[in-house]
């Protein structure tokens, strides 16, 4: 099974702690599958996600976790100052 690359192909280094038993299992899997330890870890994470969230893409799960889907204002980057001014004047208006 090949590991599908994400749209952003830049690889990053992460650090994870594990005990000696997990490290030995990782080493044995790496040798038996003829993959690097990084590939085994990446493949394991993808399999874990697929098993625990079989009906959802990662993006859908991410939306559920973070709860923000958009503001419905498609011009925020262009008219950010106007929107900010309106928001602040509404928040601090004196009655």
Features:
single chain; 95 residues; mainly alpha; 54% helix
Concise synopsis of the structure shown:
The protein is mainly alpha-helical and 95 residues long. The protein contains 4 helices and no strands.
Structural features, described:
This protein is 54% helix and 0% strand. The protein is mainly alpha-helical. The chain has a domain at 12-69. The mean pLDDT is 79.
What order do the helices and strands come in, and which of them pair?
Blueprint: H1 20-33, H2 37-52, H3 58-66, H4 80-91
Helix pairs in contact: 1-2
Structural class assignment: mainly alpha
Tally of helical runs: 4
Helices and strands, in N-to-C order?
HHHH
Strand % is: under 5%
- Average pLDDT, to the nearest integer? 79
* Secondary structure: number of strands: 0
Distance between the termini: 65 Å
Low-confidence stretches: none
Integer-rounded radius of gyration: 22 Å
| Overall spatial form | elongated
């Amino acid at each position: 099974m090949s590991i599908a690359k994400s749209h952003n192909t830049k690889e990053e280094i992460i650090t994870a702690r594990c005990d000696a038993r997990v490290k030995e299992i990782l080493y044995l899997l790496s040798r038996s599958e003829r993959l690097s330890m990084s590939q085994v870890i990446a493949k394991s994470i993808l399999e874990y996600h697929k098993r625990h969230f079989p009906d959802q893409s990662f993006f859908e799960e991410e939306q559920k976790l973070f709860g923000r889907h958009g503001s419905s204002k498609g011009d925020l980057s262009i008219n950010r100052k106007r929107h900010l001014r309106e928001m602040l004047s509404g928040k601090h208006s004196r009655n």
